[in-house]
Design brief:
With 798 residues, this protein is mainly beta. The chain has one domain (195-797): TonB-dependent receptor, beta-barrel domain (Maltoporin, Chain A), CATH 2.40.170. It is built from 5 helices and 46 strands. A hairpin with a 2-residue loop joins strand 34 and strand 35. The protein is globular. The two termini are 19 Å apart.
Length: 798
């Protein structure tokens, strides 16, 4: 049985009175995420945290409002939290973004059902590179390029909770790109009692998955608990032929002295091979011509040297994240300290025909030898590989002082990011496989002088120093709580380009000033009002600095610059929250202004994708968010969310030496309407849930001359648990704890459509500029929706 903080919380099913009395810093959330292993946590408990039972292997309580899609909040800004009652009923292979797709204003799009190959998140029309992504308080995406593969961070069975905060990040958030909000992910704590969990799954596309976790329980009376888990997954490329493979390990070790003093060591390791299909992103013209038939080739023809053979289009990856969150309290002072390190090694392969005569930087190279080149041809088949090797480390330190009504805090965040980016080429064997899918230099194609041939070769070091200070003021016996503070972040970028003809050293210094202020007031035990104003910023990624040369001409394909203005936003929110024995809900009005909206997009040199960046100027957005979920009635727990948003471009945008007439147009990536409906039914033995998500049209160009059509998708889960009071349940109880079988179906209606805008453009059609110039259009690209997919999972505790 889990204990609540006070006896009044035990008695009342609703937690609102307790929330008003026990609330803590909201604008500056605790550096160390809420610890479910503490009996007396200062963070507001949710209804599911006061239930007396849960399933041993997945934490499902059956009582969380909205089926686990909503819980009471106290922050002076919009926030939605997803708990185990929903997470545990989704397919185990899914990434954490997928779990948030029902929240107001959130749009999640994958090219495959799990999000291993490619996944996209947007909130209130702002994309994931504008959203601060944190994991137990540490940055998930790099501060250099905002690189992130969320599916490979933690297994879904080990997720504790997920929160989305679409308005802004917090003062102590360890990120420099929180202009569009905050995505927060936490790992579960080790269980107090020894035991474990086993998953076995099978499904479409030759999907198989195995997962096992062992919890040690407390080691004697030492206060130490731990778990170790491992998973192994295999399936085929979601589009077309090809084999994928993922191996992942998680661990968590906790030492507790008492409720206020603890230290943990948390980590995860992944080795993955996924599809890197060039057909993830497709133009409308390609989609209308080929549809689902636009996919990789199953077989290799050495006489035709098929560049779209699937073995030449792989993504190989090795990653880890390790952190050690700790909290120590003495008297009125609490210190939270989290050091961390992360490693990211990714190699993206693409079949490419390489010419014998080309440029190394701006130097012409002739007589280039390509293994296996067919007689009488001037080019040969290679695998072009783009490798990212990134090492990160840092720390976040925060001290909070309990002075009664005031709880001031001060903190410091430091991050060091060192990344090397290479685009090279390797030979192809007679069976179509590359010499090295991992991009090893010993297997790289070399120029006549013996040096490896690269079309991209640069490294960049980004160092970040952040200082933040704030205070929480509690008045009127806890009914009124105000939060405010200031954060100053200093960013230094230092890039080195190693191709001839490019500037060797490039540097950039940036500063962010981010004040925040907000408050909430408990009007009645069930009704709360909140309001806040916050600022956010996104520092330009390192791709703004880096220039690219065309290997066929030696001329600039993209010219980097240090004259880049930061994306900056001022947002205001005000709303009401309601929580009683029957429902939990909220209604939020929001308004924000953008300046120097940064748009990350892509172009291609052959099959090589190169980063491009656009300045979208100013943007103004207004809207309403709403969500509501019920506590169980007749085993039902429905949930509904909706958002209306009106967003416009404030200025004409420069294109070459002219300006496009974009002022007053709708902003890109911004659906006017998003809605979601979730229905959960669970009587303890049988359970099912149904998800329906919809978004309206989203423009993919600033001229509004092309758009992603509206889309509705449906998912379904159905399952059964073995009742322990049956004869079979009693017989198996000594071996298996709460065994269950579950069917999960993605895209129930098998809708075939686009799912997200991959690469927006200024204009799709030739447009006359303000000064009369004809500005040529470029076709935006889109991610295609993953179609019908079914997975059956057997899960049990032991």
């Amino acid at each position: 049985m889990r204990q609540s903080r006070t006896s009044s919380c035990k008695i009342l099913r609703t937690t609102t009175p307790c929330l008003a009395l026990l609330t803590t810093t909201a604008l500056a959330q605790p550096l160390t995420p809420p610890k479910t292993h503490h009996k007396h946590t200062v963070n507001a408990p949710s209804p599911e945290s006061i239930t007396v039972t849960s399933h041993v292997h997945d934490g499902v309580t059956g009582t969380a409002p909205g089926g686990g899609l909503i819980r009471p909040q106290t922050a002076p800004k919009a926030r939605s939290t997803i708990s185990q009652d929903y997470i545990a009923k989704q397919a185990p292979a899914q990434n954490a973004y997928n779990m948030t797709k029902m929240a107001p204003g959130v749009v999640v799009a994958n090219t495959d059902p799990a999000g291993h190959e490619k996944s996209a998140l947007s909130m209130r029309g702002l994309t994931q590179d504008e959203i601060a992504n944190v994991y137990n308080g540490i940055p998930l995406s790099s501060v250099g390029g905002y690189n992130l593969d969320l599916a490979w961070v933690v297994d879904s069975e080990n997720i504790g909770s997920i929160s989305v905060q679409p308005g802004s990040s917090n003062l102590d958030t360890s990120a420099i790109n929180g202009s569009g909000g905050l995505f927060s992910l936490t790992m579960r704590d080790p269980a107090r009692k020894a035991g474990g969990t086993l998953d076995l799954g099978a499904g479409s596309r030759d999907y198989t998955r195995q997962f096992i976790r062992y919890d040690t329980g407390e080691w004697g009376h030492s206060g130490i608990r731990a778990f170790l888990s491992a998973s192994n997954q295999h399936d085929t490329f979601y589009r077309g032929p090809g084999q994928e493979s993922f191996q992942h390990f998680d661990f968590n070790v906790i030492k507790e002295w008492d409720d206020r003093n603890h230290i943990a060591l948390i980590g995860g390791f992944t080795r993955g091979i996924a599809g890197n299909e060039p057909y993830w992103s497709t133009t409308m013209a390609n989609w209308h011509q080929y549809g689902w038939g636009n996919q990789l080739s199953r077989y290799y023809n050495p006489q035709q040297q098929t560049s779209d053979y699937w073995k030449l289009n792989w993504l190989h990856s090795r990653t880890y994240n390790i952190l050690a969150p700790m909290s120590f309290s003495r008297g009125k002072v609490t210190v939270d300290f989290t050091p961390y390190t992360a490693y990211n090694d990714k190699v993206y392969g693409a079949g490419t025909n390489l010419n014998n005569t080309l440029y190394y930087g701006n130097q012409l190279i002739t007589g280039f030898h390509i293994p296996g080149q067919l007689p009488g041809t001037s080019s040969g088949l290679t695998e072009s590989y783009t490798s990212l090797n990134e090492m990160r480390g840092g720390l976040n330190l925060k001290a909070t002082f309990d002075l009664g009504a005031n709880k001031p805090f001060i903190g410091y965040w430091y991050d060091y990011d060192n990344a090397t980016n290479l685009t090279g080429f390797t030979g192809v064997y007679s069976d179509g496989s590359p010499y090295t899918p991992w991009g090893y230099q010993s297997k790289a194609l070399r120029m006549p002088n013996g040096q490896p041939y690269y079309t991209t070769n640069y490294s960049d070091i980004t160092q970040t120093n952040g200082l933040y200070v704030g205070d929480t003021l509690t008045l009127l016996q806890g009914k009124f709580v105000a939060d405010g503070g200031m954060r100053v972040t200093m960013i230094n970028r230092n890039a080195t380009q190693r191709l001839p003809g490019l500037p060797y050293k490039i540097g950039l210094n940036e500063v962010q000033y981010l004040p925040q202020l907000g408050a909430h007031y408990q009007i009645t035990p069930h009704l709360q009002a909140f309001a806040g104003v916050a600022t956010g910023a996104k520092a330009p990624p390192d791709s703004y600095l880096i220039s690219t040369l065309n290997p066929n001409t030696g001329q600039y394909a993209y010219r980097g610059t240090t004259n880049v203005k930061q994306e900056y936003t001022i947002s205001e929110e005000a709303g009401l929250r309601y929580n009683d024995h029957y429902i939990v809900g909220s209604l939020t009005y929001f308004h924000f202004n953008f300046t120097n909206r940064q748009i990350s997009t892509y172009g291609f040199l052959g099959n090589q994708r190169i980063a491009e960046n656009l300045n979208g100027g100013g943007q103004t957005s207004d809207g309403l968010d709403a969500e509501i979920g019920t506590h169980p009635f007749y085993h039902f727990r429905p949930y509904i969310s909706a958002q209306y948003m009106h967003s416009t471009i404030n200025n004409n945008i420069k294109a070459g030496n002219d300006y496009l007439p974009t002022k007053g147009n709708s902003a890109i990536n911004t659906p006017k309407w998003t809605t979601s409906l979730g229905i959960d039914w669970d009587n303890g033995t049988f359970f099912w849930n149904y998800d329906l998500s919809y978004f309206s049209k989203q423009y993919s160009t600033f001229m509004n001359d092309e758009a992603l059509p509206s889309l509705a998708t449906m998912n379904l889960t159905a399952g059964m648990r073995l009742p322990p009071n049956t004869w079979l349940g009693r017989k198996t109880n000594g071996i298996m704890k709460s065994p269950e079988i579950m069917l999960w179906i993605n895209n129930l209606a098998n809708t075939r459509a686009y799912s997200a805008i991959n690469s927006p453009k200024l204009n799709a059609k030739t447009t006359r500029g303000i000064y009369g110039t004809n500005i040529a259009g470029q076709a935006p690209t889109y991610n295609t929706l993953s179609n019908f997919y079914a997975i059956v999972t057997f899960r049990t505790g032991f």
